[in-house]
Amino acid sequence: MSPTAYTIVLIHGLWLSSQSLERFAEYYRSRGYNVLVPEWPRFGETVGQTCQRGRSIAELGTAEIFEHYERLLEKLDTPVLLIGHSFGGLLVQLLLDRGWGSAGVAIAAPAAPGVWRYTFVQLRMIAPVLLNPFNDGRSVSLSSNRFRSVVANAVDDDEAAELFDRYVVPAPARVLFELAFSNLTPRSPLYVNYCNHKRAPLLLVSGSDDHLVPNTITRRVLHRHACSNSVTDFKEFSGRSHLLIAERGWEEVASYTLAWAFSQTKRRNDYRLSDSNQHSPATPPSHDSE
């Protein structure tokens, strides 16, 4: 996969700014790739600016975020690798389902409609928001203690505090409502056609110590995608939390995702040359030797 032939688009998640993906961006750029790390619409260019825009982002919903990325992708004239973390990983699945991207990676992504499973930790985290219907249309903050215990539980207190100050921003409660009630909402903006045979390859990534989106949920998502003839792979990283994109050992995650994408683009090229309809599993090669 020639670096100059591809654009990598990184998509951040709820309660996090695009800066949370800065290490991935630097890693890929150092290997010659064109990397875009756009903020969600209405967000500021920095964490500080976004924190001051709570009222502006309060009514932000999934549809507006999705359309924001569609407009960005429409302007690109190179094949695109989509990599999303947390809610950004769910956006990657939505974009792949709509025909965008040459390959996609969903890291620690919550489940789309069709997967009926919520953990105690998830309910405890979002219940204070959902129990007040007036929160729909507001922005909600994440406390440092909750961030430490649920999102960055695999690092020490000092590193968690540093990551919190550097990356955490308010989240639009509307997205939380849409996510929480997606299984009960006709025509949910989060709907993914799991049986889409035409979508690009997808890699689902999970951390074994993720308290927010445990691997049991990711495996259920993997199972739902099994009805598609398109490639869906799964990778679990041992000892990693929900914030495996930024905590110690993030390089392994970044390297693996790039190697996997390389294997998929090569496989798709071989598929075109051989005119074969068979997909065979591949072990991603090491990409550190580039």
TrEMBL record:
UniProt keyword Secreted present: no
A Pfam short name: Abhydrolase_6
AB hydrolase-1 domain residues: 8-254
Disulfide bond recorded as keyword: no
E.C. numbers: 3.1.1.-
InterPro entries the record matches: AB_hydrolase_1, AB_hydrolase_fold, Carboxylesterase_BioH
Residues covered by region (Disordered): 271-290
Protein keywords: Hydrolase
GO MF annotation terms: hydrolase activity
Protein name: Phospholipase YtpA
Species in which this protein is naturally found: Stieleria maiorica
Gene for this chain: ytpA_3
